[in-house]
């Protein structure tokens, strides 16, 4: 019963991403109703069908995470559909390998808008609904191993994820009086859409040399920590934490 999420509603922001969709399925398996959000409605509909198999309520909401009006309307629609929002999982993400010296401000703005602005908007809008409802909640942000020690080749992505860590800990303090917990998951290397194009043989070898478990993570291996953080009974006194799921990458030295 400690991990039972029956009757709770989880909003998945960036629901069609590899990691976001895996965690959405994990939350659904433990009873949470799922509101999927994202730009690609066709992908959202496909995921919606998969999640229906868990016997929970699920609905797809097309939205642009960088657009405040779009996000506000989506939150209103989800509130009407669900009669309450308990869990928000923020998993939007884009990446780029553009070298720093060649980086345009247009590309910088695009990545920052999706990865950081989008999460700030989501936290602001959905926490407002949680506070008005008065029943607390859990916000889970998806960070990255590049958020603490920036990785080569992903300058803007690393900077955006460092921002995620900062806003997570700031909002944990800000929202604690309202019984809203805010935590972040720091995944290690989970091959996904935004990083497959930089996984050359040389880079894979470098990653494995720095990962004690000597393998990539599987998206399903993020489900457990997401379920734990979503559950008030299991992690009710946990907030402001940056939790690594990285095969030991963050603990590795020479």
CATH topology: Rossmann fold
Task: Quickly count the domains.
Answer: 1
Q: What fraction of residues sit in β-strands?
A: 5-15%
Instruction: Identify the strand order in the major beta sheet.
Output: 3-2-1-4-5-6-7
Measured distance between first and last alpha carbons: 42 Å
What share of residues is helical?
Answer: 40-55%
The appropriate CATH architecture is 3-Layer(aba) Sandwich
| Computed CA radius of gyration, to the nearest angstrom | 17 Å
Number of helices: 8
CATH top level is Alpha Beta
Principal-axis shape: globular
The secondary-structure class comes to alpha/beta
Give unreliable regions as ranges: none
Return the string of H and E elements: EHEHEHEHEHEHHHE
Number of strands: 7
Largest sheet: 7 strands, parallel
Mean pLDDT: 94
Family: Belongs to the short-chain dehydrogenases/reductases (SDR) family.
Pfam families: adh_short_C2 (PF13561)
Protein name: D-mannonate oxidoreductase
Domain Ketoreductase: 8-148
Question: How would you characterize the overall build of this protein?
Answer:
- The chain has 254 residues and is α/β, with parallel strands linked by helices.
- The chain has a single domain, classed as 3-Layer(aba) Sandwich (Rossmann fold).
- Helix content is 43%, strand content 15%.
- It is built from eight helices and seven strands, in the order E-H-E-H-E-H-E-H-E-H-E-H-H-H-E.
- Strands 3-2-1-4-5-6-7 form a seven-stranded parallel β-sheet, sandwiched between helices.
- It is globular, with a radius of gyration of 17 Å.
- The chain starts with 8 loop residues before the first strand and ends in a 9-residue tail after the last strand.
- Residues 8-148 form the Ketoreductase domain.
- InterPro entries: KR_dom, NAD(P)-bd_dom_sf, SDR_fam.
- One of its GO terms (biological process) is bile acid metabolic process.
- It holds the Pfam family adh_short_C2.
- One of its GO terms (molecular function) is oxidoreductase activity, acting on the CH-OH group of donors, NAD or NADP as acceptor.
